[in-house]
């Protein structure tokens, strides 16, 4: 990995970690349930992005598969939470 790419990867990991910390604060202090659901959505997106950046850093395909799984489970989870907030139940 070249010098510039290594610095860019480290900088992006730092920025994503900072964003995760701020999102966790929003998750725990959110005034409404909708704020908490949005924070969870953003957390899974950040986790997926961090996995992709780690896959670039270590040149491994395993991280990309992990990011795909995080995206899949995050979508299903946010759909279930939205349905629960809308109707009060997930399975009818």
UniProtKB/TrEMBL annotation:
<keyword id="KW-0406">Ion transport</keyword>
<comment type="similarity">
    <text>Belongs to the CPA3 antiporters (TC 2.A.63) subunit F family.</text>
</comment>
<dbReference type="GO" id="GO:0005886">
    <property type="term" value="C:plasma membrane"/>
</dbReference>
<feature type="transmembrane region" description="Helical">
    <location>
        <begin position="6"/>
        <end position="28"/>
    </location>
</feature>
<protein>
    <submittedName>
        <fullName>K+/H+ antiporter subunit F</fullName>
    </submittedName>
</protein>
<keyword id="KW-0472">Membrane</keyword>
<dbReference type="Pfam" id="PF04066">
    <property type="entry name" value="MrpF_PhaF"/>
</dbReference>
<keyword id="KW-0813">Transport</keyword>
<feature type="transmembrane region" description="Helical">
    <location>
        <begin position="66"/>
        <end position="86"/>
    </location>
</feature>
<keyword id="KW-1133">Transmembrane helix</keyword>
<keyword id="KW-1003">Cell membrane</keyword>
<keyword id="KW-0812">Transmembrane</keyword>
<dbReference type="GO" id="GO:0015385">
    <property type="term" value="F:sodium:proton antiporter activity"/>
</dbReference>
<feature type="transmembrane region" description="Helical">
    <location>
        <begin position="40"/>
        <end position="60"/>
    </location>
</feature>
<dbReference type="InterPro" id="IPR007208">
    <property type="entry name" value="MrpF/PhaF-like"/>
</dbReference>
<keyword id="KW-0050">Antiport</keyword>
């Amino acid at each position: 990995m070249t010098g510039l790419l290594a610095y860019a990867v480290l900088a992006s990991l730092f920025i994503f970690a900072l964003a995760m910390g701020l999102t966790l604060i929003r998750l725990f202090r959110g005034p409404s349930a909708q704020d908490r659901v949005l924070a969870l959505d953003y957390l899974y997106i950040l986790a997926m992005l961090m996995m992709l950046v780690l896959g670039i850093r270590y040149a491994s395909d395993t991280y990309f598969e992990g990011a795909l799984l995080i995206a899949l489970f995050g979508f299903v989870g946010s759909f279930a939470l939205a349905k629960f907030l809308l109707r009060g139940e997930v399975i009818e």
